[in-house]
Design brief:
Radius of gyration of chain A: 20 Å
Number of strands of chain B: 7
Largest sheet of chain A: 5 strands, parallel
Oligomer: heterodimer
Shape of chain A: globular
CATH superfamily of the largest domain in chain B: Beta-grasp domain
Strand order of the largest sheet of chain A: 5-4-3-10-9
CATH topology of the largest domain in chain B: Ubiquitin-like (UB roll)
Order of helices and strands of chain B: HEEEEHEEE
Structural class of chain A: alpha/beta
Order of helices and strands of chain A: HEEEHEHEHEHEHEHEHEHH
CATH architecture of the largest domain in chain B: Roll
Helix content of chain A: 25-40%
Largest sheet of chain B: 5 strands, mixed
CATH class of the largest domain in chain B: Alpha Beta
Number of helices of chain B: 2
Strand order of the largest sheet of chain B: 4-3-7-5-6
């Protein structure tokens, strides 16, 4: 991994992480492609979903994923109520996975936008039960503030709807969320391509979480590479501090000493 | 097989049933044929032998115990209790695992 990334760590629920890219494991062609993309993304945390076992499936994700290398982050995708999400994560914990969980309570099947009210309710219960909760939430500074106040270990505002690839729709709100943040801010959902990831990182967030942007690229492996680099580039640009924008040109070469 | 004076033992001797269970404790000498239970696994109805435990069922389904979490009648059965939890007629189970997701 690039030196720039290794010397710039961040902390999530007591873990020190080098990679600022968290990736999903859904929508890939097969286990081989998933593995290749995880590897090239450089991610240290990867999300997984909980479902009924498929008795005809020949291999289980847990049998091929390298759990020494990747921290699994179980999600509650498909849950529409706080109760369903809590039930799902209790089962996930029974599978012996680490305490960090991605809480996601959806309010509508068409937009897959979060139901912040149900999310808050579930977060309250889960925090009490000792889970390290990472809630997926609207890009709403108030909801994010409430979630961090009740003990969530990160807040994960969306860039745009899940799987839409529309990029950061409201950078101002993401900035408000960062300004007030006492926990890591992770942009989750809506990133479409490398520039979206870089823009997100340039805002000063701590990490980006994505799945579809890599899995549904024409060449997922190459896009995983692009995303790794974009996250590093965006983070470095944020740390470097960009030049001010000007309405007019400003010459880069000296204006004196010109030949006559 | 030891033949004792009870209907189940007689049936076993004649080869009609092969699986007996003791009644009134293990040393009573009284046996009856095991019956089948109807249970629901992940929404699908299935028959299992009386006395089947959660651990037996997971093994019968060809699953690795460390790859699944089990809910019995909406209550999580911790892995350490799989051996001890016996299924009842009408038991409803959810058996879940991790799959790819974002």
């Amino acid at each position: 991994m690039e030196r720039a990334a290794t010397e710039d760590t961040w902390t999530l629920a007591g873990r020190t992480l080098r990679s600022r890219l968290i990736v999903g494991t859904g929508k890939y062609r097969d286990a081989e492609q998933t593995k290749a993309c995880l590897e090239r993304s450089g991610a240290e945390i990867v999300t997984v979903a909980l479902r009924r076992v498929d008795l005809s499936a020949k291999d289980n994700l847990l049998s091929w994923i390298d759990r020494d290398r990747y921290t699994l982050l179980p999600n509650t995708a498909g849950c529409y109520t706080a109760d369903e999400a809590i039930r799902t994560l209790r089962l996930a914990r029974e599978l012996g996975i680490a305490d960090i969980v991605k809480l996601e309570v959806i309010g509508d099947p068409k937009t897959l936008l979060p139901d912040n009210e149900q999310t808050l309710e579930a977060a309250k219960v889960l925090v009490k039960e000792g889970f390290a909760v990472m809630p997926y939430v609207s890009d709403d500074p108030i909801a994010c503030r409430k979630l961090q106040e009740l003990g969530c270990v990160a807040v994960m505002p969306l860039a745009a709807p899940i799987g839409s690839g529309l990029g950061i729709r409201n950078p101002h709100n993401i900035r408000f969320i960062i300004e007030q943040a006492t926990v890591p801010v992770i942009v989750d959902a809506g990133v479409g391509t490398a520039s979206d990831a870089a823009v997100a990182m340039e805002l000063g967030i701590d990490a980006v979480l994505m799945n579809t942007a890599i899995a549904q690229a024409r060449e997922p492996e190459r896009m995983a590479d692009a995303m790794r680099l974009a996250v590093i580039a965006g983070r470095q640009a944020y740390r470097a501090g960009r030049m001010p924008m000007r309405a007019h040109a400003n010459a880069s070469s000296p204006t004196s000493g010109l030949i006559e | 097989m030891r033949v004792v004076d009870c209907p189940g033992a007689r049936l076993a001797q004649w080869g009609i049933v092969h699986d007996l269970r003791a009644v009134d404790g293990p040393w009573s000498g009284r046996y009856v044929p095991r019956s089948m239970l109807r249970i629901v696994i992940n929404g699908e109805s299935r028959e299992v032998r009386e006395g089947t435990t959660v651990a037996d069922l997971v093994a019968q389904l060809g699953l690795r115990r460390e790859h699944v979490a089990v809910e019995l009648d909406r209550e999580i059965v911790p892995r350490a209790e799989h051996e001890a939890r016996v299924l009842q007629d009408g038991s409803t189970l959810e058996i879940v695992t991790f799959v790819g997701g974002g």
